[in-house]
Amino acid sequence: MGTLYLVATPIGNLEDISARALRTLKQVRLIAAEDTRQTRKLLTHYGIRARLTSYHEHNKLVKLDTLLAELAVEDIALVSEAGTPGLNDPGYELVRAAIEAGHQVSPVPGPSAPIAALVASGLPTDAFLYLGYLPRKSAERHQLLEKIVALPFTLIFLETPHRLSVSLADLEIFLGARRIAVARELTKIHEEIFHGTIPQARERLALQEPRGEFTLVIEGNRSAEQTWSLDRLQAALQARLARGEAPARMAAEVAAQSGWPRREVYKMITDLETR
Asked: What is the pLDDT of residue 261?
């Protein structure tokens, strides 16, 4: 019975691969790779000759039986395009199938963009929630943000350059002026980590065309453990109404700060407007 090794590979800097990862890739006879071209570059750099087979989002189910048959006679390594396999990359189904078939599954830990961004964010790391990529569709994105707005945990998202602007706009609407770290091109030549608030991040990124892969680390709801009193909530809403702020944006921001449900805050705004 073979072992399935989950081998983390560099997310940019090739020097970040571990000695154990290199030894494992040299020992196995087959490597299942999300992107065989990228993996071949890594193997060539370190002089590793191993048989490669593709394993990606579009063939991960049809490849299961083939890989399980290979595992029956030899060890296999699973690698993603970059970082830790199975973490927002194909791998979950293979890991589950290997376990159910009685194979040992052994992680070979290493680079991970979400964890690298988290520890460099300056935000609490004792409790965090990783949610992968924000939904592409606006309505689905809003539903997700509405569900998590009151959570006290540090939040971690991945985002693509072409969706970064609209995602930051929605984050500001629902989460307000929370602290954020925007990490770009981690471990690569043009690595950059911006620390500030969500509105400041929007202003900063509006001045340049977003490029590269982004990881967003956002402060949790600091008021989740202490909900505002009704008097404090009404006073805050009245002050914002006096400044002419938009009700929808006001409701989202105050809900995030006060610990009150967004719908109740919005209803309260409507009631105050009609007085």
From this structure: 84
